[in-house]
Amino acid sequence: MFSKFTSILQHAVEALAPSLPLQEDFVYHWKAITHYYIETSDDKAPVTDTNIPSHLEQMLDILVQEEKERESGETGPCMEYLLHHKILETLYTLGKADVSF
């Protein structure tokens, strides 16, 4: 009975709040990460105590999903966004600055 109710509730949520296109979802997670660093410049909490790992995992999942949906040799909009906005370089810089010796 409970699982049936949960299933019905999940379908209602999906109907009321349709999923975002992959690129919008990808950008949302990236902005959440950058917002954290902008808003908490003095906070020295370990990254594992923040939502950053979850956002990074979501971004990776989106890239994998996008790759599966594309034909071989095509670059999707999320990968283009990652490359154009130099996300990997930014993550490297943020991580390097966050390491204390």
Automatic annotation (TrEMBL):
Q: Which domain of life is it from?
A: Eukaryota
InterPro entries per the UniProt record, alphabetical: FHIP
Protein name according to UniProt: Family with sequence similarity 160 member B1
Q: Which organism is it from?
A: Pipistrellus kuhlii
